[in-house]
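User: Show me a protein chain along with its predicted structure.
Assistant: Here is one chain, sequence first, then structure tokens.
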Amino acid sequence: MSPTASTSTVGGGGSAEPSGVKKTSKRPKYSKFTQQELPACKPILTPSWVILTFLVAGVVFIPLGVICLFASQGVVEIVDRYDTDCVPASSRDNKVAYIQSEGDKICNRTITVTKTMKNPVYVYYQLENFYQNHRRYVKSRNDAQLKSPREERDVKTCAPEDNVGGEPIVPCGLVAWSLFNDTYRFSRNSQQLPVNKKGISWKSDRDNKFGKNVFPKNFQAGAPIGGGTLDPKKPLSEQEDLIVWMRTAALPTFRKLYGKIETDLHAGDTITVMLQNNYNTYSFNGEKKLVLSTTSWLGGRNDFLGIAYLTVGSICLFLAVTFAVLYLVKPRQLGDPSYLSWNRSAGG
């Protein structure tokens, strides 16, 4: 073999890659999805389109707002605050001592119906400055215990209302312990108006969250007593006042359903309410109110939705008119859309 040939062979072998070795690459596999090249709608917002969009939104939202406001205004509502008036004048300097004392705390109130209220008339109690959303309060309960008798001794999350004398409390926790216990009786022209307390809770709660074979045990047996008591002979699934109360409120001012009056109340009727002022809201400067209300297809009285629709619709209508005037008075020439990146060819 000649020296020249040997040199050429050695030089060529030094620069060549070994046979059978593949060159690796970190480049991902090409696809239109990863490269964001899928077909897409890319509208060009011309002045005409912007003006038309705002105009349509305004024309749709404003009538909707008017309809919602009319529906809300059609709800007849009577609100009566009684927590202060139902404390005797001699005890108003120390309301807490009065509410914690023994004896009946009967209070009579008179309500005048201003507009006819078609049945059913819903009876609510309203509490203010009561923070049911407090973290410790909300966590002081055991949902498994409410549903199954096998979990009645699982009270580790219910402190401080977990047991009495070593025996578990059913239902345990601060939420159940603070059950609202004011009562209301209604009469009109010396004739009693019955209040239906059946079906005031969510059916899903009765069927799925409160057991049909779970009965109260040791409830309100220790001191201090927080609120109302429960019938130990009735299962929790039938104690609807408790079920309504256990669905905690998100805000410090809330209403909960007490019952339904299934009789029409006519304008000018005088309703006498005999109530038991038992619930202590005086310790935290809370307020108690009795509410009688009808409903509409939107629910109870709430002007927020109608006002929101009117506000947004008015703003859209104002912007549509403003942009239309600017476009007519001082028009601006649009650019050529063919220069947009998605309209240009790949080679261009």
